[in-house]
Design brief:
Length: 454
């Protein structure tokens, strides 16, 4: 095997068939090194995962100690000290009355579990007519079938449409492309009125839950809702007995400046999903948080949560989350990241807000998005046939910057967003290096790409 692998070389089913992928050798802090010795800055934590950086010895030690004791037990037979300790750490700081934690292996799995929990709750409550799920577009909740059904990614329907479930869709608050102005005020009223109309149309007696990202992730480049949106949404859902599921797989565990993004919104969801930054990339781990009063309804009804998978509450995976959260707490990483996050966004805005191809720079904390456009005044997108994300992504990789792109956020086809989210441990000096490399890459790409926009 050489320093790159391209399909059909080797035996791994690579997701991309037309790209030669570098073979990674090791990682350290915010940096990755491939087998040729080339160094990369991981500007997106892979897929917004590596929250505490690579080769974090403190996290590795916690996992190693657990592996030496017991790596796995069936979650139907045993619990473990690691599970109990991480559940306590998460619940003690959770918004509202979230005081129960259930551990799985991925965000998609946890989304499926949350939706099944909501449905089972209403069946056991004696209200089996409540089964509908409301979600928002653009948005993303995972790639398993119901999680994908609830994701605002219309392009997936080309392949998987017959397999997907019906989900009631609303518009995601998306400041740069909000249908009314000002965003604060008229925009907020628009989105809340849409929810009110949807509940009235569908019938509150049929709606079980609403699933939403507290801070929209890769689908909008970190767009935040208007200031009172969540408080008004919460009031409506409480009135109509609709459970609120906060998807914080991407925006939680410090990514947006507080441990839970919901803290900044004064939002108290009924269920919450964590992943990505919770495990830091050290083991597959996600979490579903909920409340004892909801669990009690199921306990007194059917008697058990009708959802189990082989790796629920696995000690070695949970140890990764425990190590990450303890590291974040011990070194006050999230508190420090508020300052570095503000600096990160200010530098991105300073260098890119006037760039001819960047329509918007947004985000919160250490989550940022640059929306690429053909025309800044009209906000017209770059035609997807030009493959802006793909060509820019290759230039950035060539220069040693790993980034994340999303496409199709405008109408399912059109739209390009560059998403950045470095490790929470990043320093200001490293931010300067990252943003400088990004600027160099964007300018190099634009010098040859701009002729396509005439």
């Amino acid at each position: 095997m050489g320093d790159h692998v391209k399909y059909p070389e080797g035996h791994v089913l690579l997701r991309k068939f037309h790209e030669a992928l570098p073979v990674i050798d090791r990682g350290e802090g915010i940096y990755l090194f491939d087998t040729s010795g080339k160094r990369y800055i991981d500007g997106s934590c892979g897929a917004l995962v590596t929250s505490v950086g690579y080769s974090n010895k403190e996290v590795v030690d916690v996992i190693t100690q657990q592996l030496a004791k017991v790596p796995y037990v069936n979650g139907n037979h045993f619990t473990s000290r690691a599970c109990e300790d991480l559940a306590t750490l998460l619940c003690d700081r959770a918004p509202g009355r979230l005081d129960r934690a259930f551990f799985l292996s991925s965000g998609s799995e946890a989304i499926e579990a949350a939706i099944k929990f909501a449905r089972q709750y209403f069946v056991d409550l004696g209200e089996p007519s409540k089964y509908k799920v409301i979600a928002r577009t653009p948005g993303y909740h995972g790639n398993t079938l119901f999680a994908l059904s609830a994701s605002g990614r219309p392009r997936y329907k080309k392949f998987f449409g017959p397999l997907l479930h019906d989900v009631v869709m609303l518009q995601t608050p998306y400041e740069y492309r909000a249908p009314v102005e000002p965003y604060e005020g008229a925009g907020e009223d628009f989105y809340i009125r849409q929810l009110e109309d949807t509940i009235a149309r569908e019938g509150a007696s049929t709606v079980a839950c609403i699933l939403l990202e507290t801070v929209s992730g890769t689908s909008t480049g970190g767009s935040c809702a208007p200031k009172s949106y969540f408080r008004r949404l919460q009031k409506l859902c409480r009135e109509h007995k609709i459970l609120m599921i906060a998807d914080e797989v991407l925006c939680g565990v410090g990514r947006t400046g507080t441990f839970y993004a919901a803290e900044q919104e004064f939002f108290e969801p009924d269920l919450m999903i964590l992943g990505k930054g919770l495990n830091g990339g050290y083991a597959p781990l996600s979490a579903l948080l909920t409340r004892t009063d909801l669990v009690d309804v199921i306990a007194k009804g059917s008697g058990s949560f009708m959802h189990a998978q082989t790796y629920i509450n696995t000690p070695s995976s949970v140890a990764a989350g425990l190590g990450v959260v303890q590291f974040l707490d011990r070194h006050r990483i999230i508190e420090k990241s508020r300052e570095t996050g503000a600096y990160f966004l200010s530098e991105l805005k300073r260098r890119f807000e006037k760039h001819p191809v960047v329509g918007h720079v947004g985000g919160r904390g250490l989550l940022a998005g640059l929306e690429l456009v053909k025309d800044k005044r009209s906000k017209a997108p770059i035609p997807r046939s030009l493959k802006a994300s793909e060509t820019l992504g290759r230039v950035l990789m060539d220069k040693g910057l790993v980034s994340w792109f999303n496409t199709g956020q405008i109408d399912g086809t059109e739209g390009d967003i560059l998403v950045l989210g470095p490790p929470l441990t990043i320093t200001k000096t490293e931010i300067d290096e990252l943003v400088g490399l990004l600027e160099e890459g964007v300018n190099t790409w634009f010098a040859s790409f701009s002729k396509n926009l005439i």
